[in-house]
Design goal:
123 residues; Pnp Oxidase, Chain A; Split_barrel_FMN-bd; UCP028498; DUF2255 family protein
Amino acid sequence: MTTWTPDELAAIGDAGELRIAPARTDGTFRGPVPIWVVRVGDALYVRSYRGSDGGWYRQAVRSGHARIDAGGVEREVTLTEPTDDVDAAVDDAYRTKYGQLSSYVAPMVAPAAAASTRRLDPR
């Protein structure tokens, strides 16, 4: 597995938004959509505001990978369901980073969105 460089982690983790283009089953990429991204330790996480109903999310789960662009970093990534209990740390990261947008933060830390948490791993 490839790992993020410290510069990539900082650039993506500090970016206000990440543009994600999930891969289709034929290997082409969907048009990118802006979403929020948070950093917890040396990992990057995303969630679907609409939980499992989000269009980008459904496509990303089906294919397992996407192309991202954030903070000047463009990479193909694998979207992995976290195997450890990171929900509380990811919730805190969303509150800290996006707290000034409070009306949008509450849905991002709600159970439906938390269930859609995916770690971004570089390909």
